[in-house]
Amino acid sequence: MTAGAIVVAAGRGERLGADVPKALVRVGGRTLLEHAVDAVQAAAGVDIAVVAAPAESVDEFASLVPSARVVAGGAMRQDSVRLALASLPADVDVVLVHDAARAFVPVAVVQRVLAAVNAGADAVVPVVLLADTVKEVDAAMSVVRTVDRASLRAVQTPQGFRRDVLERAHAAATGPATDDAALVEALGGVVTTVDGSPEALKVTTPFDLVVADAVLTQRRAHV
Predict the structure, then answer these.
(1) Which of 22, 48, 141, 166 has its CA 20 to 30 A from that of 94?
(2) Can you point out the beta strands (E) in the chain?
(3) Helix 77-87 and helix 163-172: axis angle, to 10°?
């Protein structure tokens, strides 16, 4: 099977307080974009990477990751995935969708997702256990109940799909979804899970940058 990776990198990064798109924020001297593209391209079996960038930054992004194809993303994440998906070569039949904000996902996680799709799964997501107690609250922020976390998982990226399944899921979407797997679920599709990693944290706040820097420092110390 031929596999392609979509790296969604059109986010503005307001919560980071950055004056550049989030994917251009640097950790360890390199942008989140570069780290994220490296992670998916390092996985055996990924044949092409397409980056969905802010429309005004396509040339800048392309200069940073010349090994990838860079296209203009859309107003929402869903739009960006759809546009990048349409730009993949026709022979790509397995698609990974990865958030540039999860720039430090271990290559082993990427390989697990890809292997599960290649083994026959229609859709695959990496997941991790929840460490915190989870409470359901009402509109007044009063606790309604404590949720049993034993069956709950936090979902990461890259998420993997049969291309035809992902295309049908996007075509049938009636509203925004927080991830692509939710669109497959809405179609009645089965989403399989594999083990994720704490290192695949989503960089959203300045504190997350501190953690990401620690992850990178630890990796470099063990090279």
Answers:
(1) 22
(2) 3-8, 26-27, 30-31, 46-53, 69-72, 94-99, 123-129, 134-137, 143-147, 153-155, 159-162, 191-195
(3) 140
Cα 23 to the center of its chain, rounded Å:
12
Q: Residue 178 class from Cβ within 10 Å (0-12 exposed, 13-18 middle, 19+ buried)?
A: exposed
In sign, the C-alpha dihedral spanning 28, 33, 18, 20 is positive
> How do residues 121-148 score in pLDDT, each as one tens digit?
999 999 999 999 999 999 999 999 999 9
For 140, the token pair is: 């007044």
The values of phi and psi at residue 194, to 5°, are -130, 165
Each residue's pLDDT tens digit, 74-94: 989 999 999 999 999 999 999
Task: Judge: domain 3-221, CATH 3.30.450.90.
Answer: no
Write out the two tokens for 218. Answer: 């630890």
